[in-house]
Design a protein that fits this description.
The protein is mainly α. It has three helices and no strands. Helix 1 runs antiparallel to helix 2.
Amino acid sequence: MSAATTGLLAGMALGFAAFFGGFWAFLLVAFLGLVGLVIGRMLQGDLELSDFTHSRDRQ
């Protein structure tokens, strides 16, 4: 599935949530989509948990 198709489906899901459920449903769908994206990237190996936990060294 291309990035454009994925973006279209995500936008449609958010639009339906906003229209039928209101603002809080929109925020819930957006948050759960973000959580799903992070988990998917971690399972693919593109993202590691240490990316969120370790601070960068300042030089």
